[in-house]
Amino acid sequence: MKVAYWPGCVSRGFTPELHGSMALVAPKLDIEMVELDRANCCGAGVIAEHNQELVDTLNARTFAMAQGVEGAAGMMNICSTCQGAQTECRERLDASTDYRSGVNEHLKPEGLSYESNGDWWNKNFLWLLVEEIGLDTLRERVVRPLEGLRIAPFYGCYIVRPTRRLGYADHPERDRYMEMVIEAIGANPVDYAGKHKCCGFPLITMNRTTSLRQAGRHLADAIDADADCLVTPCPLCHLNLDLQQPDAAKYVERDLDIPVLHLPQMVGLALGLEPKELGMNKHVVKTGDVQRKVAALAAA
Ligand code: SF4
Ligand code: SF4
């Protein structure tokens, strides 16, 4: 399957191991990614607060580039925050022909135009994996079932809220996809209170205490539920849960030491890729225990 690929800025900057692991996982699932390397930041919901036409123009430009990729079934992202922000812009662009024409006027100098088309999609890798590739295909491609690994899914907010905008009417199980993928690769999904809650990332510069207490509480809940690691489809969630984990431990006044994987890293392990090539040595919280469990599976 050919897709226009929107990696987002965080996956290229702060968490390059996410972009790197996606690049290795894609060919194993027969996904041909055509990277939109001239596309722009989605605004992450921040620009929209100040200037909706500007953020809609920026995202219409990205959508127009994606629609220009010949033979692409749609556009794939690896950041649920991008998913949420872009879906919101698209909703406004699709709602009014006049508004869309005005936005497209701004794109004319580059020869671009976003065409409203109900069949065209922009999906996070999680959605694409379940809805376009399919869990049966994923199961067939697994060469190293992650048996015995207890994985706590962390969805974050933008991929589950608001359900009306995010297509839950047509795909009511989207808030269970992580568990379904975890089961398909042979591991055990762990249930815990924070899996659909906010990680606190947007608050970090305004109220560090509340932000990191929130992240720390979710991590502690996953530890109490006996998880070996968490996995997330959002690099911004990853920043609060992994990069900030040592500080979050101070705010919740307990030891936290639980690795946080990106979704393509977890899938890549089951597809036979090695932890180091998936960049699992790049995280703040060491992934050694998970790596040892995976190595033991290979040796068994
Ligand atoms: S959500 Fe963040 S990472 Fe994704 S494109 Fe927007 S600004 Fe970049
Ligand atoms: S969980 Fe955090 S980073 Fe993730 S989408 Fe929500 S606020 Fe953003």
Quick overview:
With 300 residues, this protein is of the alpha/beta class. Helix content is 48%, strand content 9%.
Question: Could you explain how this protein is built, in words?
Answer:
It is a single chain. This protein has about 300 residues and is an alpha/beta fold. It has helices at about 10, 15-30, 45-50, 50-65, 80-95, 95-105, 125-135, 135-140, 175-185, 210-225, 235-245, 245-250, 265-270, 290-300, and strands at about 1-5, 30-35, 75, 120-125, 150-155, 190, 230, 260. The chain has a 4-stranded parallel beta sheet, sandwiched between helices. A 4-stranded parallel beta sheet has the order 6-5-7-8, sandwiched between helices. It is globular, with a radius of gyration of 19 Å. Bound molecules: iron/sulfur cluster (2 copies). One iron/sulfur cluster binds near residues 156, 198, 199, 201 and 236.
